[in-house]
Amino acid sequence: MAVDITQMRKGLLEFCVLAQLEGEPRYGYELVQRLGEVDGMLTSEGTIYPLLARLHREGLVAVERRPTTSAGPPRKYYRLSAPGHRALTSFRREWATLRTAIDRTLQGGAR
Amino acid sequence: MSAPHATAIIEGYLARLDLGLGGSDPQRRRELVEDVRAHFAEARAALADETDEDLLAICDRLGEPADLAREVGSTTVVAQPAASAPYVWSWLEVAAIALTVMAWPVGAILMLLSRVWTRREKVIATAIGAVTFAMGFPLSAPFVGPVVGTLVPSLGSAAPLFVGTLGSLPLVAAAYLAYRLTRTNSPRVRLA
């Protein structure tokens, strides 16, 4: 059962990442920090990087490198693409329905 | 100032990650190691005076290198259906669109059976189809039927019925369904 919850969390995490990119482009570590502020969102910080790579391969996010203000190497910024926007919009709609259905089912089971 | 064993801790972590990625695509392998190296740089920049414990804590939060490497493997497998799933058409969708034009009630049933279109799209297509199907015959047959009957005498008395059927073709509904089929690009949520 613990494995199932992990898989569910992984499946949902990708849309949470897309949502974080909705307003403005962000770099990987910034995303880790933002998602880390939400309790239970990231079980391990490293998982965000393979996920971002996959979202990039699938065309849901675009990548651009921008110089940092410090002397470090350029940062890799992720930006939500048009297909990413559509996927997020679609997920929000599906999630609203699913959440209601699950809540109703779970509450029904408790009665 | 760097922690006493900074290089050993970070490079050791990256080496274990690289080793775990042994069977992966070389570019993905390079990218992930580079991303995690950048993560270390960012996390270290936020530390005022780093210690070995700080760096070990960064490693802990990142997770086991072997687990990260497995993520690349698992996401590679999952990525294939996810990338192609939105565009999977089958005979069912093609038949639904064709029959929406030729025999709307049958087409509508096939459309409802399909899992490609969303509930909203099905409701819209059904509404358009039903209205045009119901209105087409009475609107067009009495006016256009006699004209076609004259132009194509072989149709004879069947001309109004023929034209009425043509007039009732829910072309708009079929066009809408076809349009939505090509526009659908919503990765399905995989909960299992």
Main traits of this protein?
heterodimer; A: 111 residues; alpha+beta; Arc Repressor Mutant, subunit A; three-stranded antiparallel beta sheet; 4 helices; 3 strands; 60% helix; globular; B: 192 residues; mainly alpha; 2 domains; 9 helices; rod-shaped; disordered C terminus
Helix content of chain B: over 70%
User: With helices defined by DSSP (H or I, 4 residues minimum), what is the helix count of chain B?
Assistant: 9
Q: What is the subunit organization of this protein?
A: heterodimer
> What is the terminal separation of chain A in angstroms?
23 Å
Low-confidence stretches of chain A: none
Q: Which structural class should the secondary elements of chain B be placed in?
A: mainly alpha
Q: Care to describe what's here?
A:
- Chain A contains four helices and three strands.
- Chain A is α+β, with helices and mostly antiparallel strands and 111 residues long.
- Chain A has a single domain, classed as Arc Repressor Mutant, subunit A, CATH 1.10.10.10.
- Chain A has a three-stranded antiparallel beta sheet with strand order 1-3-2.
- The longest helix of chain A is centred in the C-terminal third of the chain and has 29 residues.
- Chain A starts with a helix and ends with a helix.
- Chain B is mostly helical.
- Chain B has two domains: 79 residues; 96 residues, no CATH class.
- Helix content of chain B is 74%, strand content 0%.
- Chain B contains nine helices and no strands.
- In chain B, α1 packs parallel to α3, α7 runs antiparallel to α8 and α7 runs antiparallel to α9.
- The chains are: A alpha+beta (111), B mainly alpha (192).
- Chains A and B meet through α1, α2, α3 and α4 of A and α2 and α4 of B.
Condensed summary:
The complex is a heterodimer of chains A (111) and B (192). Chain A has 111 residues and is of the alpha+beta class.
Helix/strand layout:
The complex is a heterodimer of chains A (111) and B (192).
Chain A: H1 2-20, E1 26-27, H2 28-36, H3 48-57, E2 61-66, E3 75-80, H4 82-110
Antiparallel strand pairs in A: 1-3, 2-3
Chain B: H1 6-20, H2 26-45, H3 52-62, H4 65-84, H5 91-102, H6 104-113, H7 119-151, H8 159-167, H9 171-183
